[in-house]
Design goal:
globular
């Protein structure tokens, strides 16, 4: 077969898209897919402490250990509690904020910038600043003393009490996320024609009711997007915990990702850390599927 006949036998038009995708696929294969496959394999082995030794196949032993590990069960509960508390707030509150800053008022751009500022602040800087605010002699406790909500010389142990530590970290996550999700909603709000609100006003849908009748139904795709993104972010929370509490006190603020970090990089239990990572992947996948199914059901009902 000569070169001319070979060229004629190859459908270059069909292959062209794959040739364009090939560099990106190679890069993803080396940086994402191959490491993910290795982590999946290591979760069924014993690979720890002396990392120069070859992994030893142990089957499901790591999974049996995982679900009898009280610290992992605690971190799993902490992560689920994070989802339950943080995600609904980050779905609803930024929408109200976006409606507020979508008004055509003088100087509204400054308010948008102010609400978005926490997003561009490094989590390290934000965590240190909030840690100072939460200190027993910090600004927050001093303010509560001025208001008479706590006794003078006493302060609420925001980060040192198992009752408050996790919720204190949640507040920082919400503070950082409000502006980010507000911008997503703002893009959706500005795509809604003003004529719909004018027609709604004629039919008696005005004030807050117009947002319930018009804004919320039209913003459903954006609500779904924010729900999925915020749920994934909540399950992967790490920086806030690392900077502010180090998972304490008594593992009360320790999340799955932080526990994975401890096992992998502090205790060098790589195979056990890969098992935790696999469970985290399945958790995120399950949450995404549930969100998509719920959105599909709501779409059919609507």
């Amino acid at each position: 077969m000569n070169l001319k006949s070979l060229n004629s036998s190859i459908n270059w038009q069909r292959l062209t898209p794959y040739l364009f995708l090939l560099p990106a696929l190679l890069l993803l294969g080396l940086t994402v897919f191959w490491p993910a496959f290795q982590a999946f394999y290591l979760s069924f082995t014993r690979f720890e402490y002396d990392l120069t030794e070859a992994p030893q196949w142990v089957g499901l032993a790591n999974f049996q250990k995982l679900f009898t590990d009280p610290i992992f069960l605690q971190t799993l509960w902490n992560t689920l509690l994070y989802l339950i508390c943080v995600v609904p707030i980050l779905v609803a509150a930024p929408l109200g904020l976006a409606i507020l800053v979508n008004q055509k008022l003088r100087g509204i751009a400054w308010f948008r910038a102010a609400y978005y500022t926490p997003v561009v602040i490094s989590m390290v800087v934000a965590g240190i600043a909030w840690k100072w605010l939460y200190a027993e002699t910090g600004l927050l406790n001093q303010l509560l003393q001025i208001l008479g909500l706590v006794r003078a010389g006493e302060g609420i142990p925001w980060l040192t009490s198992p009752k408050f530590a996790l919720f204190s970290v949640m507040a920082v996550t919400i503070w950082k996320g409000l502006g980010y999700y507000m911008v997503i909603y703002l893009a959706g709000l500005q795509a809604i024609p003003a004529e719909l609100y004018e027609a709604g006003a004629i039919d008696g849908s005005d004030g807050i009711r117009k947002h319930w009748d018009i804004t919320v139904p039209l913003m459903k795709p954006y609500l779904l997007l924010v729900a999925v993104i915020s749920a994934i972010s909540a399950t992967k929370v790490f920086e806030e915990v690392y900077i502010m509490t180090q998972g304490g006190p008594r593992s009360s603020s320790k999340t799955i990702v932080y526990y994975l970090y401890e096992k992998a990089f502090r205790e060098l239990e790589m195979s056990y850390a890969c098992t935790i990572g696999l469970v985290l992947f399945l958790l995120i996948l399950g949450l995404s599927v549930i969100n998509l199914k719920l959105a599909d059901i709501r779409g059919r009902v609507g």
